[in-house]
Amino acid sequence: MVEQVMVHGAEWTAKELFVYPNEFIYWSIQIVMYPYMTGLVAGAFVLSSLYHVFGQKDLKDMAKFSLVFSLALLPVAMLPLMLHLQQPLRGIEVLFTPHFTSAIAAFGIVFTTYAIIVLSEIWFVYRRYFVEQTMALKGKTGFGDTVRRGIYHVLTLGAYDISPEATAKDHRAVTVLAAIGIPVACFLHGYAGFIFGSVKANALWMSPLMPVIFIMSAVVSGIALCMLTYIIIMEWKKFKAILARGRGDETVTVIAGVEMDVMSKASKYLLGFLVAAITLELLDIIFRGYTAMKSWDILRDVMFHKDFVKIFVLQYGLGNLVPFALLLLPGVTIRRLVVALVLILFGVFMMRWNVVIGGQAFSLSFAGFMHYHLPMIPHSLETYKEGLFGALTVAVTPFVIFWLINKIVPSLKEV
Amino acid sequence: MTCSRRTFLKNAVKGAIAGALPVAAFRLLSPAQARSAVEDASVRWGFLVDTAKCVGCGMCVKACKLENEIPYDAPVTRTWVERYVVTRDGRTHADSPMGARDGFTDRKIHGGEAIDPSEIVKAFFVPKLCNQCDKPSCVQVCPVGATYATGDGIVLVDRSWCIGCGHCIMACPYGVRFFHPVHKVAEKCNFCYHRITKGMKPACVEACPFGARHICNLKDHDDPVTRIILNERVAILKDEYGTKPNVFYLGLDHNVR
Fold it and tell me: What fold, for B42-75+126-257?
């Protein structure tokens, strides 16, 4: 008895009607996570840049936080790709031997450029803080203090000048970096859309609108996640203040006031980008229906029958329309905001799902369908990597990283 | 000599850029690429399928699996045969169970009701394999250049270099690519490159008892198979993708997907 060899994709693919023998859902949950996580990175950065470049003062409190958060998200944009590769140890070859006709080859360059911009922008924002910390910790003898002083000492990179002229230069550098960062962040995510949009063999993906749609929904999800995390952190602060000083204390009302103020302003930007994202997505569908090319028959079957609930109920209904109404109705409360933000994040996730999995829901023969069954309980490395738990690993990691970075670079305190 | 930190950093950046430039130039003008660009190759492999002669026995699929070490019971294959049944009501029924490795022994299609023979207006078999395109989209999208076209027109995969991202599988409009279940890298038909470069025929051509499959050198106009492609009315699959395939079909029906 020969051991049964497992074909990649056979585990979670169910075929219906005429599907070519070699067709399986090769791009699974991690490829859903990949544009989702990259989108969050890009979105968080764009949010912080709105303050740094365009001087949107109302976003000042969010700016620092979302900048650091986009750094925490950055390594996680790579993680799903690594979990997806059949040969993860060779993944580094994309950086070393890029083949430039491939959209993925640009990844190394764009990603590295972007990482450098984010890191240097954070450095310029926090340089003064690093210097102050090094000074403040001087002479302290405790182990923790020595280690911290060592870290800050290294982080200053030897630049100790915090005269007004020097800090003014820092500010200019931040503005310039943030300005360069916006197109790079858009490119980082636009090219993720390009990877899909340029697959001419796939009738659902192939669209020049794809990169733009991806950028818009990226900004939407990035802003939503930053707002949500901000609310959670502020609520925690408020809770601590209540415990320490009682409910009626002035600090509690101050925190609540600041929180509501920042949120109502940020939600305006969120709404703007949401409208742009939905408009483009609907335009794409309408255009496909109107031109009704060869693939339209099968696409219509997928959209309006097989995946109707996922696309129109979960993505457009629950993920777009409901939060849209929740944000627009007067008298917004934090609680209602939280519901709206969670739904928006869910909606963008469903959009990624419907693009990635939906694009493989029909055969290249246009005469058959494939159904995806997400592996829940892992029983092999593959079903962990490309299953529910692999996706959860990817989703949780940025928060762990953010917690670690925040120990060194406090993004939530006034510096 | 004094060297301030600023000067040092400036020079370091300049040095890194200057160092990276020649590397990039090498990439653009690799010797192999340069050679293949100027080389006057006398061979361009092509393939001819005579659909009228195919009976769907699946001998080609069997032979291919054994020759190219594709696990026999894995539901993936480098070549396969499709069955098309067009019924009186104008509907087309198509299938390819296990890629037709064991032929078509069942009248039922997709496990449904067996089709009443009196309802059938036409039925035929169509073998499929890699089209070794002139403009292969799989080669275009490979992020590391692990898949490439040889000078004589065959698209190959370097098993030691493929990272297994699956972009090539997604990019192929013909669905000929898959992940090799053992090697865990992209896998595809290469017209049995190890055989044709030694003067032999591909395993599927050798195994076909009815002469439905032929290999040829498209640059040799005296090649009898090439002459059929030149002189007869032949068709290609999915030309709308602009991949310029090199597998030609005699008697291709419009129902073929």
Answer: Alpha-Beta Plaits (3.30.70)
